[in-house]
Amino acid sequence: MSALEVTVDYDAIARNVEILRGHAAGADVMAVVKADAYGHGLVRAAQAARRGGATWLGVAQPHEALALRAAGDSGRILTWLYGPDVPARALIAADVDLSVSSPEVLGEIVAVSRENPRPARLHICVDTGLGREGVTPAELPVLLDLAIAAQEEGLVRIVGMWSHLAWADAPGHPTIDAQADVFREALSLAQDRRVGLEVRHLANSACTLTRPDLHFDLVRPGIAIYGLPPVADPYGERFGLTPAMTVRSEVILVKDVPQGHGVSYGHEYVTPYPTTLGLVSAGYADGVFRSGGNRAEVGIRGRRYQIAGRVCMDQFVVDLGPATSVCAGDPVTLFGVDGPSATDWARAIDTIDYEIVCRFGALRDKGAA
């Protein structure tokens, strides 16, 4: 085994999408596979999502959309994160839907569309309160009128309007309804201008699971399709979702030490009794968070053990206790189906599980199944 082995259960991703389709209550599902599918592998995760019934794929970067087309995906794909340097020619030729947040981006798309037989499909992104991508409500009428003029020339088709929520992972937060109201006003503006929208979409993973009234025509789950719901399940069952990623290493040394023995740099952990230490072959050079020292847990032989002392560049130590059956060569699950979850790691080091899977997912090709 290499220092870390990162494996992904793509059947779990397919099943998770099936479950999310059930939560979507009639809306279509766009599986968000940006950032290399949150570290799970862009193409294979997208294929799994399609098997699970995703009718759309969503990516941030244009190169991700083009990579999906190159891999043979022929379904609807939306990409949204770019400025006026958007590679519109390649995206239009690849039949990718484009998000528009400004007149500058729209102008580039329209200019390229004049040279293409196929009109670009546009989704107008509205900033309903996140303060990130999207046109502000005050500027929406101007952008919408420019897009309508281009549509009347046959250069574009306005097929969607969308937005993104700031606090969807906090069900009941007042900004959710406030942003939904702004979004509905934007939709009314489009309707007043007789724009026939194919899809209206607002709901991310959290709202897919908790706010059926905000599903509209299409939902955009991201982290949930990888089995990590961003909101608590009131029944404690993860909404039926299965985490798809597992990260393992191995114990390479086991040894007995006396009480009061310092462990790792700085002796931030000192053994409280005579015990057995296990050395694990993985460290921060392999993606293990250094902040996990004395905080994060790993799984060995069905038990959980906290990391003892500092995480080093290429190794860390666990205190196995005074009576252990652990041996050198035993597998160590940092997170996955037989150990802690990515969410457990996130809570231990004060971050979110999105960061955990993206960090370790970057190492996937070193030993992924």
Automatic annotation (TrEMBL):
Query: Could you tell me which SMART domains the record lists for this protein?
Result: Ala_racemase_C
Could you tell me which residues carry N6-(pyridoxal phosphate)lysine?
A: K34
Kindly identify the residues recorded as the active site. K34 (proton acceptor), Y265 (proton acceptor)
Provide the E.C. number(s) assigned to this enzyme.
5.1.1.1
> What are the protein's UniProt keywords?
Isomerase, Pyridoxal phosphate
* Known pathway: Amino-acid biosynthesis; D-alanine biosynthesis; D-alanine from L-alanine: step 1/1
Q: Which reaction(s) does the protein catalyse, per the Swiss-Prot or TrEMBL entry?
A: L-alanine = D-alanine
- Positions that bind substrate: R132, M313
CDD domains associated with the record: PLPDE_III_AR
> Which residue range or ranges hold the Alanine racemase C-terminal domain?
244-367
Cofactor names = pyridoxal 5'-phosphate
Q: Say which domain of life the source belongs to.
A: Bacteria
GO MF annotations, alphabetized: alanine racemase activity
The record's HAMAP family line, in alphabetical order, gives: Ala_racemase
Q: What does this protein do?
A: Catalyzes the interconversion of L-alanine and D-alanine. May also act on other amino acids.
Please give the family membership noted in the entry.
Answer: Belongs to the alanine racemase family.
Q: What is this protein called?
A: Alanine racemase
**What does UniProt list as this organism's lineage?**
Bacteria, Bacillati, Actinomycetota, Actinomycetes, Micrococcales
Q: What's the gene? A: alr
